[in-house]
Amino acid sequence: MASYGLYTHIQSNRRRSVALLIGLFFLIYVMVFAGALMAEALTGDAALGWLLQAAWRDFLYALPWATAGTAIWILIAYKFHQAMIDAVTGGREVTRMQEPRLWNLLENMCISRGIAMPKLKVMEDDALNAFATGLNEKQYSITVTSGLVHALNDAEVEAVLGHELTHIRNGDVRMLVISVIIAGVIGFFAELVFRSLFYSRWGSWRSRGSSDRKGSGGAIFAILIAVALIALAWFLSIVIRFSLSRKREFLADAGAVELTKNPDAMIAALRKIENRGELEGATSAVMEMCVDNPRSGFVDLFATHPSIEARVEALVKFAGGHDPGPLALPAPDETADDEGEAAAQGPWGDRPAESGGDKPFLPAQPPLSLGEPASPTPQPGPWGPQRDR
Questions:
Q1: Strands 141-145 and 130-133, how do they pair?
Q2: Are 150 and 339 in contact (CB under 8 A)?
Q3: Residues 44-103: pLDDT tens digits?
Q4: HEC states along the chain?
Q5: Phi/psi-derived region of residue 336, left when phi > 0, alpha when psi is between -120 and 50, beta in every other case
Q6: Which end of the chain has fewer CB atoms < 10 Å from its terminal CB, N or C?
Q7: What is the pLDDT of residue 56?
Q8: What is the mean pLDDT of the segment spanning 94-123?
Q9: Are 51 and 222 in contact (CB under 8 A)?
Q10: What average pLDDT score do residues 150-156 get?
Q11: Higher per-residue pLDDT: 291 or 339
Q12: What is the model's pLDDT at position 343?
């Protein structure tokens, strides 16, 4: 669990990022070949071997175009992914003047670790969640929901910010963005191929005659192979996304504990976030970046995050924290009443009505006139009766 900031872990993430880029192009090429094979099969029947050779020729012809298209896709995602995420979530960048509490908590942790401070953003949502995004130091940002800010105390908010800082420090954010790009490219090509299949189903494709083709009966097998390749590419992209998510959450929890030295705060934050993190209108790609991506039942088999229960158990076992169990949050009106009562009481007990809510409470003292002798009976101080000197 104490693997936060280890050089070996950061280097491993960098190597995996390079492998992801290679995997991206490989899966795209698989999709292009599958599309070419399906197109050849739909334009006329022939022997399977002839269709495979024709699809390979089409693939070689389309190879530079597919590479250029994928590169453009990556550049667009690299430049505008944060703007697209903000458009979906409604996140807005805040300054120290606007959110001094959040800003100071984040800045203190960054200074303590020598980490460049990412941008701080807030999205108006009652859900309790947060996520980090970006591909380099100029782009990194941490977004928290207004619901999380209101429901968690300073120590718990600090733990959540530490969790997201660990994702940035360990290179997890970069890998997640790359995995989202992979899923987007694969999904785009899969939809394109299946739309072409649907289009041809209604006879809009014109068959080219098969006078130059040898044999027949291979079209159906070619279509089955193409569909299998598309499904395989989609499945591999999902596996990559899952492999990046589950372990990194445990490591980010451990990094938050190392930053804050407070495992109980991280546990309490997770318990409050539990089952309250679903962002309305957010895509699955955004939810994969969050502190918690709630799933249950059969859907949990495809969850990108380990369960809160498993994460809390790990913190108790390896970080020495204490699990309070599931926590119930007070209703907003109850919270307001509690805050008002606390303000009226003050930190040392009930505040006198005449003191006013904007002045510190001090014990009442008898009036003192200049020139009067000191009282013969010494007044007790905060540590007991005063002694005569």
A1: antiparallel
A2: no
A3: 778 888 999 999 999 999 989 888 887 888 788 888 888 888 888 889 999 999 999 999
A4: CCCCCCHHHHHHHHHHHHHHHHHHHHHHHHHHHHHHHHHHHHCCCCCHHHHHHHHHHHHHHHHHHHHHHHHHHHHHHHHHHHHHHHHHHCCEECCCCCCHHHHHHHHHHHHHHCCCCCEEEEECCCCCCEEEECCCCCCCEEEEEHHHHHHCCHHHHHHHHHHHHHHHHCCHHHHHHHHHHHHHHHHHHHHHHHHHHHHHHCCCCCCCCCCCCCCCCCHHHHHHHHHHHHHHHHHHHHHHHHHHHHHHHHHHHHHHHHHHCCHHHHHHHHHHHCCCCCCCCCCHHHHHCECCCCCCHHHHHHCCCCCHHHHHHHHHHHHCCCCCCCCCCCCHHHHHHHHHHHHHHCCCCCCCHHHCCCCCCCCCCCCCCCCCCCCCCCCCECCECCCCC
A5: alpha
A6: C
A7: 94
A8: 93
A9: yes
A10: 95
A11: 291
A12: 41
Residue 246 has which token pair?
Answer: 């589950």
pLDDT 10s digits, 260-281: 999 999 999 999 999 898 888 7
- Burial of 126 from C-beta contacts in 10 A (0-12 / 13-18 / 19+): middle
pTM, whole model, 2 decimals? Answer: 0.72
Q: Are 13 and 166 in contact (CB under 8 A)?
A: no
Q: 163 with 252: CB under 8 angstroms?
A: yes
What is the pLDDT averaged over residues 148-168?
Answer: 95
Asked whether the beta carbons of 37 and 207 are under 8 A apart, the reply is no
Residue 216 in this model has a pLDDT that exceeds 50: yes
Catalytic, 164? Answer yes
**C-alpha to C-alpha distance for 164 and 256, rounded to whole angstroms:** 8
Residue 297 has pLDDT above 60, yes or no: no
Beta bridge partners of 142: 120, 132
* Number of C-beta neighbours around residue 364 at 10 A: 8
Query: Measured in Å, how far apart are the chain's first and last C-alpha atoms?
Result: 58
**Residue with the two structure tokens 């014990």:** 363
**Cβ contact 273:291 at 8 Å:** yes
Active-site annotation holder among 40, 156, 158, 164: 164
Residue 245: per-residue pLDDT: 61
In this predicted structure, what is the pLDDT of residue 125?
A: 93
Average confidence (pLDDT) over 253-262: 92
